[in-house]
Amino acid sequence: MGSVSPITLPQSETKTKSHAASGQQKSKFRKYLPLYLSILPYFVIFLVFSLVPIIFSLYLAFQRWDGIGKMTFVGFNNFTYALTDPLFGTAILNTFEVWIMSTVPMLFLALAMAFLLNQRKRSKFLYQVCFFLPNITSIVAVTLIFNSFFGVQYGLFNAVLTALHLPAVQWFSDFWAMKWMLAMVVMWRWIGYNGLVYMAGLQSIPTDFYEAARLDGANTFNIFFRITIPLLRPVILFTVISSTIGGLTLFTEPKILFNGAAGQSIPGGIGSQGLTMSLYQYYESFTTFHFGYGAAVSWVIFFILVIFTLLNWKLVQRGEN
Amino acid sequence: MTDYGTRTQRIITHIILLLFLLISVIPFYWMIVMATNTTNDIYHVPPILFIGNQLWANFSKVLQNIDFLRNFGNTLLVSTIITVLVLFFCSLAGFTFAKFEFPGRNILFVILLGTMIIPTASSLVASFVIMADFHWIGTFLPLIVPGMVTAFGIFWIRQYSISAIHSDLIDAGRLDGCGHLRLYWSVALPALRPALGFLGAITFINAWNDFLWPLIVLNDAKTYTLQVALAQLNGVYNTDYSMVMAGTLMATLPLIIIFFFGARQFIANISAGALKF
Amino acid sequence: MPINSLSLRFSKAARGFLCTLTLFSVLCTLAACTSGTASGKIHLTMWYWNRSIDDSVIAQVGKQFPNIDLTAEKITDYDTKVRTTMAGHNGVPDILAVNANLSTYFPDENQFVDLRTLGSDALKSTYLPWKWNLGTTPTGRQIAIPMDTGPTALFYRSDIFAKAGLPTDPTQVTNTLKTWDDYMQAGDKIKQATNGKVKLIDNIATIYGMVLGQQPLQYADRSGKYIGDGGNVKNAWNTAIKMYQQGNSAEVVNWTNDWNAAISNGTVASFVGAVWMKQPLFEAAANTKGNWRVARTPGGDGNNGGSFLTIPAATTHAKEAYQVISWLQNPDNQLTAYKDLQLYPSALETLNNPALNANEDFFGKENTNAVFAEAAKNIPNFYLDANHDVVGQDFVNALGLVSATNKNPDAAWNDAQIAVQRDLLR
């Protein structure tokens, strides 16, 4: 593997054309068959297990249904209701606010973390395992711990603030505090995860790149922006796309943070300021059992996601060509 | 001088990393604290902050309530099968998408990306009906088959392959008369090890922690996965958190051990390899 | 390597994989089936959740009914699983426990067996009338029989009450704090005696629910018409708002560390809760053992929580299922369930059983059962309609805005009404 010139690395995609030209002696069918067979399993699984449910949910979006009784056709009612529901509007706004508040710092910190850890010559593995713990720790444990961290009157954070003679924060009723709390928990759960993605990506960058740059007198800052970032671009694109999808479908964190007593839980906390689109959809489907309406909401969310993912894709990929 | 940067730089790096480490570990530590103390200690104000000696007492309560070993075995079986299948199918498809041109490649990839965003939560009922039609309710198949190859995994491997697999090597392999599977096996897989380590860990952990779908499709307590079984420990009006945490801890420790020894093979090896480049 | 042998290998791998899958599916199906082949017996499946039915009682079903083989499955995320299964018409159990949200199943009452056809009228008089009636649908079908109940009471700190010059003996407290106004005046005395450091109640959302829970009609009348724009709902709202405005509420939310801490460190002097709040209280405030007492709820007795047993219409063994559920909830078994799991009985015979009585150290040797049993028998008939939980949510949300963000109560009330109107549209 050592013979490959590093310069060709980023351009590898354009080089694949030569493969297409080289296969003249075989019939087209035989040439492409293994390729299609390689990607076939996903599409088969998708057709059988996802497409049918998706068509069903599209059908459901035009019905009123509580899951047990008869369905009633309601035309576009569910969609008009969704688009005029102030609560859904709040949920959309919250989702984007929290997404910006969490995803941008999260990806930056994850990249910094990966870069710093990659500089370490001795074993990184213990670090990697520990950074992954937030993702493994059980949701019940996470709920309990953040409950005691963010308690308004007796929480750890406010105890520290009070000790520093700072005003206590109303974590569960101040509208911005609620969002910051949510963003903090999201970052906590996903920095390590994205850091691992970047670390895996960094390992595809040969170290002699760095050695060469060092010899040329580049400092850490230069190496980071001139070598690491450009070479990591495909992986960065991956994290941006997947955290856009993940951030805009944020569900677990607001659910565990703003889940009060049974029968008393306000979806998304006081004033629904922690309500996200996905939590709204879940609440409508599985707490109040408006299955038809829930399906319509999920299609509205889908269109919002498509637009944003496309925008993201364009933005990040622009530099690639 | 083998290490990069100055001494102060290294110290700062160290401090930042330790800070990250601390923040990541605290809630897990708290889980251990709760699992090793009594519920009264947890409710105590201010709460107890140190590891206690009640782990076995708490865990034996778990054993009285659920068939932990059997549920553990179920989860291990299901998660392992899913992980192996995902690693194989996703790496093959991702590698193919990244490194070969064929008619319809781009449009198929866009479709694949689109399927990542398509809402599935509201189709729970339809998914359940399909599984019932297949007579798969009560078996592990509804857990394994739909999840054996994912758009997420293919996307990840594709992105990683773009820069990690050198086209020259593929060309060389081609000249030697290697077929597609051979190229995959001897060129792609070695270069994809770090990516596979990550994908494998994520897949295994997600399969291990999956809750809602197993809950819907499994009926018999004998077939329950750990997460479904553990959820039974919650009371309606009050929950014995020490017991729940002891069960959760015992369900999580294997994950960490597997992650530590399993993923290490992938990640550690390639780090060593990278230096030799 | 030549391409032919490679593609062969590929298909071999694919075939091998398919074979493994098939084999595996057969194995799984076999494993799942072996449990269902009891010879000649009638097989019944029952779904319930942890601690809703006493497992030791379930274990005796086989002895009691030699012809019945009962598989009892503990289910979590209960309603999601039940709805999905019923929607899929596959694997619906023969016996289904349902929680206090039974009325949300009323629109689909024909999915449940009318127990009158199996002789439930004969059982009716043996249970608390109000509890029995909660299982009667608006069309008069009986789709459920009672399990446990949640009679409410006033939990209070006798030492704080003494400091404020209030009576401390439960009977005296019951007689003094007869109305919600009496209760609020007690709050003023507590404030004065403690410089405002100790509050009367934990939070106003609870109080709102408790005041409303004492009323026979709440958000809807029996014809399903919404009546939450005035009357009992407005009354409960006003009481809660007044509590807040007079500074009587500590505003600590249930099931949070703040609540536990406030209960434990004595900044909350009392709260109204159902009988099952005893356990959370023990766990939150073990250090205050001996200081708590229980008196009757100001304003009248109410209920909070409690569950039911139903028979889904999909069953082919309704008769046997009925035998099992009526036996499971007979007075003796309810007594066992109370002793093992503190499930408060709904059978009159059990309620009158002296075995329920105990002098509890945590409550200063008070026999709290005397309070709860009287309350249980004194709860008026009340009606919950299918939208009860959804609509209630809007009011709790509005109250939260008032107490947490100082929103104008009138504006909050109006917004709640608008939210309800929208909810009822869907």
From TrEMBL, chain A:
SUPFAM superfamilies the UniProt entry points to: MetI-like
GO biological-process terms attached to the record: transmembrane transport
Location of region: Disordered: 1-22
CDD domains in the cross-refs: TM_PBP2 (cd06261)
GO cellular component terms, A-Z: plasma membrane
Keywords, sorted A to Z: Cell membrane, Membrane, Transmembrane, Transmembrane helix, Transport
Domain (ABC transmembrane type-1): residue spans on this chain: 92-312
Membrane protein topology class: Multi-pass membrane protein
PROSITE patterns: ABC_TM1
Segments crossing the lipid bilayer: 39-62, 74-93, 99-117, 129-150, 231-251, 291-313
Gene3D superfamilies, per the entry: MetI-like
Record localization: Cell membrane
Main location: membrane
Family statement drawn from the similarity comment of this UniProt entry: Belongs to the binding-protein-dependent transport system permease family.
Matching PANTHER family: ABC TRANSPORTER PERMEASE PROTEIN (PTHR30193), INNER MEMBRANE ABC TRANSPORTER PERMEASE PROTEIN YCJO (PTHR30193:SF37)
Name of this protein: Cytochrome c biogenesis protein
Organism: Dictyobacter arantiisoli
TrEMBL record, chain B:
Biological process according to GO: transmembrane transport
Any matching Pfam family: BPD_transp_1
Chief site of localization: membrane
InterPro entries: MetI-like, MetI-like_sf
Keywords: Cell membrane, Membrane, Transmembrane, Transmembrane helix, Transport
Transmembrane segments: 12-32, 76-95, 107-130, 136-157, 183-205, 241-261
Protein's UniProt name: Sugar ABC transporter permease
Species for this entry: Dictyobacter arantiisoli
UniProtKB/TrEMBL annotation, chain C:
Gene3D superfamilies named in the record: Periplasmic binding protein-like II
Pfam short name (any one): SBP_bac_8
UniProt keyword terms in alphabetical order: Signal
Signal sequence coordinates: 1-31
Keyword Iron-sulfur recorded: no
Protein name as annotated: Sugar ABC transporter substrate-binding protein
